[in-house]
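Reading a protein record of the kind used here takes only a little practice. An example makes this concrete, so a full record is given next.
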Amino acid sequence: MENPGASGARNAFLSQGAELVPVDVDNEGMVVSDGLSKSPHFRLAFVTPTHQQPLGHVMSLARRFELLRATEEAQGLVIEDDYDGEFYFENAPQPALYSTDTSGRVLYVGTFSKSLFPALRLGFILVPERMIDAFDQTFSAWASGPATATQAIVADFMDEGILPPISA
């Protein structure tokens, strides 16, 4: 996990008993070589490549591909948290890890709490095709979540172009 990194994610992982490995961050994002030196056979990496939380660095394209290669070699997974990717003010944004992942190892998560409003409490996750059934079963068992009407309204906003489509 990026260090410094997203405290909410860190706390969620710790609450579930995860053994976290702090990985340095520089102006190109997570230093993959640092992570590999500390945990060469990692199972999961959590990154915020579009806008590193809390420093704000954008992960370079070279670093993105380095992370994808390392993840495939370790047979691990990456959670790509694009918590505010719709607010990109530089030139063209770097491609999402999810969109360049050819081995089905990236889970792309995001939220509408920044682009709409926090009280909406509506997020999303894009998973590799091989994981769809497992996630569908898991989410079907949950009793909580945003109302179906709220989800339908946001989907209509996206279909009508009021909200941009998810860029992953």
Q: What stands out?
A: DSSP finds six helices and seven strands in the chain. The mean pLDDT is 88. Strands lie at 2-3, 23-26, 29-30, 44-47, 77-81, 106-111, 123-126.
